[in-house]
């Protein structure tokens, strides 16, 4: 049985499959006048869909004679809804048009075991004749409701002339697949876009760079980057991240310098990722260069960025450099966070410099900086190693008792 978007108007009955039943509707009316269950021998057994050419071919077994020649049409849901489905339907935006609400209701109640999504969408397009604005509203609503077949609906929309797809629509789907680490599906859409003669732009190439970067394919990321004639901040940032993920920090830093020469600066998160890479490898010089580049880009370092620099100096065994970083933080009005203090105590512990550690803590106390959980644990382990943890614990208990009495006696 062949159903096309150009079926003649001389057919007066419409056949709608739903949950093993079929609805018969009169003409183009939106009122269902009859609903019957088909015997098992009359139900659809398989479907071959050619929706891209606006043709739906249905292969059926034992179609009853009275149903032959009926025009297929999409229709509303039945009365047997679960509470979850009723709640989801009630959450639909009241500004949706009736044709959009109709598809959303059926989508919410859609069962992949009993229905075919492309067939459902083809029926809706045939009946409702949507425009681009309707497709956009449908996709927005499905994304909001976290519709499980959102990607399939978006792919179908790209095949529909009524959607009027452009390069940005393809890019959005490629990006959505990339964020889900579905690289194969993203590349399939990209190839489809090229096959249809849609020229990819800088935004599409930037998305591809980011996708290849996450997938660990530096070569293809570089290829995509080289296709961009005038890279912008996002394109540069994606390529820098690709180098960082590939542990090519020298190439990443070289690209940053090229950007600085053009007065183009990446965002804070890219600089932070670069600084973290140098920090984790204990490259204090590299971390300091990136920290300086952050300030040159007009980004004000916070305590987390400073902690990464402190960590780099500590791992490199340059305690004085780390101490200098914390002193600079205090001079700039930034309080060292718990991570910074813990790193410093750990570094002093490795070098056995207890007096320097105590001097460091006393200066922090004068500035009103309190030792929190992580730093306290580092200090406790150190004191336990040298066998004075019990004495320190006794002193702390006496101090807390005196403090408690002072609070109780205060007016």
Write up what this structure looks like.
- The chain is α+β, with helices and mostly antiparallel strands.
- Among the domains are: 93-164; 282-404.
- The chain is 59% helix and 8% strand.
- It contains 19 helices and 7 strands.
- The chain has helices at 83-90, 98-108, 117-128, 132-144, 150-159, 167-179, 183-195, 202-215, 218-226, 233-245, 249-261, 268-280, 284-296, 303-315, 319-331, 338-351, 354-366, 373-385, 389-409; strands at residues 2-4, 13-18, 21-26, 32-37, 46-50, 55-59, 71-72.
- The strands form 2 sheets. A 4-stranded mixed sheet has the order 4-3-2-7, with no helix packed on it. It has a 3-stranded antiparallel sheet with strand order 1-6-5, with helices on one face.
- A hairpin with a 4-residue loop joins strand 5 and strand 6.
- It is elongated, with a radius of gyration of 33 Å.
- Residues 1-74 have low confidence and may be disordered.
Task: Give me the number of helical elements.
Answer: 19
Strand order of the largest sheet: 4-3-2-7
Overall pLDDT, averaged?
79
Strand element count = 7
Structural class: alpha+beta
End-to-end gap: 92 Å
Spans of 5+ residues with little confidence (pLDDT < 50)?
A: 1-74
Q: Main β-sheet: number of strands, strand sense, barrel status?
A: 4 strands, mixed
**Sequence of secondary-structure elements:** EEEEEEEHHHHHHHHHHHHHHHHHHH
Beta-strand percentage range: 5-15%
Shape: elongated
Fraction of residues in helix: 55-70%
Specify Rg, calculated over alpha carbons.
33 Å
Domain PROP1-like PPR: 256-384
Protein name: PROP1-like PPR domain-containing protein
InterPro entries: PPR_rpt (IPR002885), PROP1-like_PPR_dom (IPR033443), TPR-like_helical_dom_sf (IPR011990)
PPR repeats: 166-200, 267-301, 302-336
